[in-house]
Amino acid sequence: GVTIHRPVIYGNIATVLTPAERETSHYPDHTHRWTVAVRSAPSAPDSDVVGGADDLGYFIKRVTFKLHDTYPNPTRNIDKPPFEVSETGWGEFEIQIRITYVAESGEKATTLYHHLKLHPWSITFPMPNASAVPVEPEIPSPENAAKLGPVHSWQYDEIVFTDPFQNFLNLLTAHPPTPLPKASINKKPVPFHSSNPASLEASLKGGVPEFTSAMEKDEADRLEEAKGKIIKEQEKWRATLIEKEKELERLQKLLTSKE
Ligand code: SLL
């Protein structure tokens, strides 16, 4: 009954190529430079990298990033940290990320998916009475996108090992992960995630985001609030249903009395 976990993040950073970079590139249609990575969740102090405080090489043997078929050799095997791939390109696509563990772990590989994000985040809030058709956010011009700074898209996750082999457990306990800071140390922004729309504003101000343990509590609070809203809605609609059923009964009676 032993479980042990390691907090990781996976995702990408993307920047707009400068006109000079575009001119010297072999691919004049490429607009962005990006890096997709799997890293430990905590960031190193005073670092401008998101995550990556700990080297994950003691338990991860290989990370395979499967890029879009428009790339040469789209299957990229990375056999030592940093587990990341940097490329240039013009389009967003789904990247398959396969994490293989060290042989002595006896663990099956884990497969994750990340949608490469090149264009700045924007949220179109659903307006009451607006058409139900989702609005595609407009892609800003390269100049405007460049002004907004790098785009970050990171997902926090925990790799959980249940009843690991004794040797592997020893290996894991010999490498305890750096704990996440409670709050961001140098006032770094919270990484933007669509499940936390309030973080959009801070993410557009720029700065290198950082994962903190406060984010977990914030998310629990958001879920609690959402649950409360759902219960209220449920009560409202249940009352409406009871009212309508009464109305139906009344009209049916009226109908039979007239027959
Ligand atoms: C799209 N479904 O249409 C996506 C495909 C493909 C991205 C995006 C460069 C490849 C290369 C590149 O950015 N491919 O020239 O090596 O948006």
Automatic annotation (TrEMBL):
Annotated keywords: Activator, Chromatin regulator, Coiled coil, Cytoplasm, DNA damage, DNA repair, Nucleus, Transcription, Transcription regulation
Keyword ATP-binding set for record: no
GO BP annotations, alphabetical order: chromatin organization; DNA repair; regulation of DNA-templated transcription
Subcellular localization, as worded in the UniProt entry: Nucleus; Cytoplasm
GO-annotated cellular components: cytoplasm; Swr1 complex
YEATS domain ranges (all copies): 1-175
Entry keyword annotation includes Phosphoprotein: no
Function: Component of the SWR1 complex which mediates the ATP-dependent exchange of histone H2A for an H2A variant leading to transcriptional regulation of selected genes by chromatin remodeling. Component of the NuA4 histone acetyltransferase complex which is involved in transcriptional activation of selected genes principally by acetylation of nucleosomal histones H4 and H2A. The NuA4 complex is also involved in DNA repair. Yaf9 may also be required for viability in conditions in which the structural integrity of the spindle is compromised.
Family as reported in the entry's similarity comment: Belongs to the YAF9 family.
Domain-level remarks: The coiled-coil domain is required for assembly into the NuA4 complex.
Subunit record text: Component of the SWR1 chromatin-remodeling complex and of the NuA4 histone acetyltransferase complex.
Name of the protein in its database record: Protein AF-9 homolog
